[in-house]
Specification:
alpha+beta, DNA polymerase, domain 1, Beta Polymerase, domain 2, 4 domains, five-stranded mixed β-sheet, 15 helices, binds adenosine-5'-triphosphate, binds manganese (II) ion
């Protein structure tokens, strides 16, 4: 009886890869606020503060109940003075005035609007803002603004791409891509990765990994796949990055660096009738169309790198970041989407499945559904 009067003490690791984080977030009031703070710091290129708020949000996502006070019951790592102050404000007043001030801030609003366009990053957004642009139309009409083809496609499909992709839509696209891939090679392997593999119901895009047991044929397969989508008339945009993969390169130290495998960033046309259960258009979007545009990413690693790429593309970003940090700081190993390098043994560690990589790192295996850090 005495024990039951005490709240359970939870000790959370400071590494997201040692925490279980489902899609169920009990601390949204804090994590939503932290995301605004992080974004605002990102816009100002304050990477340290941005990361601090992303880390804090990630910790709170792994607490399986609403945190009601800061202190004894839950020992939360990665919370600094500033993150705690924002939490205290929310606990006491139900909202954070600092966050509300940011949300009303002109510059924040504009940068948020500009970066919502596919192909426009914080740097371009900042440039437009400094040039006095206020609306998306300003950017389209300003003679001084030169849009690249990615940004042009981003503007063309802005409404559709800003709208979340549902799980049913992701599965429908999976079916279309799978059929197209099998039409090219009977050995083609296509798997859903990214947020939908982690069990999310909605996403900003759909991520796939494509490969084949035929050595060295994965990039050709990807190019043929894109070509097949084009011939089907559903390819609205393609930005292809050829492979620069070199088997002898050590894993990169910078997390943010892209991997070197062949990949395509696409915009595809998805017909309503292809989606199981039909499509619910949000209020005011009945423009007579029976299709929508969807952002799709496809990466094509060689089969022997499959496990590393699957692990890297499944995310979440915070989970990946901490996996790599854990490997480097705690195990003297370098991990990225290509492989795992043991600095002590001076050798690459092989892996056929994600489980092998967790085992090399001495980590308990976490299902994708628990990687929503
Ligand atoms: P969302 O629902 O918003 O799409 P997500 O977790 O799927 O969430 P993505 O931005 O699609 O987010 O990224 C999925 C994973 O793929 C992340 O772990 C990210 O690190 C990885 N990733 C995304 N783009 C690249 C890239 N160009 N090179 C390497 N890895 C990438
Ligand atoms: Mn995604
Ligand atoms: Mn993606």
């Amino acid at each position: 009886p005495e024990a039951s009067t005490h709240l359970p003490v939870v000790v959370l690791s400071r590494y997201a890869c040692q925490r279980r984080t489902s899609t169920e977030n009990h601390n949204e009031i804090f994590t939503d606020a932290f995301e605004v703070m992080a974004e605002s710091y990102e816009f100002s290129q304050c990477d340290g503060q941005c990361l601090a708020f992303r880390r804090a949000a990630s910790v709170l996502k792994s607490v399986p109940w609403p945190v009601e006070r800061l202190g004894a019951a839950t020992r939360l790592p990665c919370l600094g003075e500033h993150t705690r102050a924002v939490m205290e404000e929310i606990l006491q007043c139900g909202r954070s005035f600092e966050v509300e001030k940011i949300l009303c801030n002109d510059r924040y609003q504009r940068l948020k609007l500009f970066t919502s366009v596919f192909g426009v990053g914080p740097k371009t957004a900042e440039k437009w803002h400094r040039g006095g642009l206020r609306t998306l139309n300003d950017a389209l009409e300003d003679p001084g603004v030169e849009l690249n083809s990615m940004q042009k496609a981003g503007f063309r499909h802005h409404g559709d791409i800003s709208r979340a992709v549902s799980r049913a839509e992701a599965l429908a696209l999976g079916e279309i891509l799978h059929q197209a891939a099998l039409g090219i090679s009977a050995h083609a392997v296509l798997v859903l990765t990214g947020g939908f593999r982690r069990g999310k119901e909605f996403g900003h895009d759909v991520d796939f990994l494509l490969s084949t047991p035929e050595q060295g044929k994965e990039e050709t397969l990807l190019l043929s796949l894109v070509d097949s989508l084009r011939r089907q008339g559903i390819l609205l945009y393609c930005d292809h990055h050829p492979s620069t993969f070199d088997i002898n390169n050590l894993p990169g130290v910078s997390f943010e660096a892209m991997d070197h495998f062949a990949k395509s960033f696409l915009i595809l046309r998805l017909e309503d009738r292809q989606v199981e259960g039909g499509v619910q258009r949000p209020e005011g979007q009945h423009d007579g169309r029976s299709w929508r545009a969807v952002r799709v990413d496809v990466v094509a690693p060689p089969m022997e790198r499959y496990a590393f790429t699957l692990l890297g593309w499944t995310g979440s970003r915070q989970f990946e970041r901490d996996l790599r940090r854990f490997a480097r700081k705690e195990k003297r190993m370098l991990l990225d989407n290509h492989g795992l390098w043991d600095k002590t043994k001076k050798e690459f560690l092989p892996a056929e499945r994600e489980e092998d990589i967790f085992a090399h790192l001495g980590l308990e295996y976490l299902e994708p559904q628990l990687r929503n850090a």
